[in-house]
Amino acid sequence: MKSGEAVRIALESLGVNRLRSALTLLGIVIGVMTVITVVAFISGLNGFVAEEVFNLGADVFIINRTPEININPDNLDEIRRRKNLLLEDVDAIREVCTLCQAVGGHLGSTAQVKSGRVVLPAVQIRGRTPEVPEILNEGIAEGRSINPTDVERRGRVAVLGADVADELFPLLDAVGRRLTINGREFQIVGVGERVGSVLGQSRDNWIMMPITSFQRIWGARRSVTIYAKVDGEANIEAASDQARTILRTRRHVPYANEDDFSLSTNDTFLALWGSISRTFFAVTVAIASISLVVGGIVVMNIMLVSVTERTREIGVRMAIGARRSDVLTQFLIESATLTLVGGVIGILLGAGVAMGVSALTGFPAAIRLWSVALGLLVSTGAGLFFGIWPARKAASLDPIAALRYE
Q1: Burial of 33 by CB count in 10 Å (0-12 exposed, 13-18 middle, 19+ buried)?
Q2: 92 shares its domain with 47
Q3: Are residues 287 and 254 in the same domain?
């Protein structure tokens, strides 16, 4: 029998027994759909995280008192005892690090903000030196950003995120007006460029002030986060080594001891996210595999029923010259065709679910060709694997007994 004829017979059986076919393929469809949907979401998130969330740039590194990621529980006591990073540390790196193009400091908190009768209960407050917005490529839509004079004089000036400006001054120009932060009055000197939201969370709900003004309100006992931009991507390792040496010297860290601060680059965060997404994908695939196995067992059971129903047909084929290998190939092709159809349906449903959720919620999703190929390969492979027993049973039938079967 030609393979095309076997495929045709399999498709005809799907049309004749539609309910049985739907129930047969349900496990395969669910398994493939799950894999396609998860891969679409993970691929979309990978691109989104790389471009929007951790897009520091390959020429930027961050220094914190404590690790932002991969905290070792065995080192918690040592981490708690670490000294804070100070503005003086920022100045020292800026002056001594020859490969650092720009160095700045950052502090953060949340506060109540008020203007007139409008009160915003929880706005992100950013205390910064002028270099940080430049390092992070944060643009200004109106007015200006903070400058060295603001930092030196502890000026009560503020730059608003776009959402804060819209909520406090919906019909007015915010620049030049005043607001209060935790009861202290500030003059607005600028409005930042609109960035948008991340998974439904606004990235424009912030107010930036000079880092010295921040310390006047919240105190100088908080550890400063240091941002540094390197003079050329190729110098990132050498520049971070310079900064590390400067801090170890200032903090009197013995040569044999590890750093008592954490230095991270964009690759550090992306590597962590990659590890998380790979683990999530592996767990999901393992769960989807259960559905594929169950679906494969159902397919095998239905193919065994098909062999029984078509015993006389098999006998006739053998009587007119079909070899046992022809019968074996016929039933393997039919089994693979059934599961391939289930794989195609699963791919279409998975892509539809992913794109539908993305369109309705804004959650990033991307369909990858390799995931489509994987879905087709897995579904076809399941059909071949679970179709071996029914195919061998069909091929091993005695032609005379098969012809007598009623």
Answers
A1: buried
A2: no
A3: no
The CA-atom distances, in angstroms, between 285 and each of 39, 112, 126, 233, 375 are 10, 45, 41, 37, 11
The reply to whether 87 and 43 lie within a common domain is no
* Residuewise pLDDT in 10s, the chain (406 residues): 556 666 666 666 666 666 777 777 788 888 888 888 888 888 777 766 655 545 566 788 889 988 765 555 666 777 788 899 999 999 999 999 988 999 999 999 999 999 988 999 989 999 999 999 999 888 999 999 999 999 999 999 999 999 999 999 988 899 999 999 988 999 999 999 998 876 667 889 999 999 999 999 998 889 999 999 988 778 888 998 999 999 999 998 888 888 888 888 766 666 666 677 777 777 777 777 777 788 788 888 877 777 777 677 767 777 777 677 777 777 787 778 888 888 898 899 989 988 888 888 777 788 888 888 888 888 888 888 887 887 777 777 766 665 665 5
Give me the number of domains the chain comprises.
2
pTM above 0.70, yes or no: no
State both tokens at 87.
């503005």
Max CA pair span of the chain: 103
- Both 93 and 122 in a single domain? yes
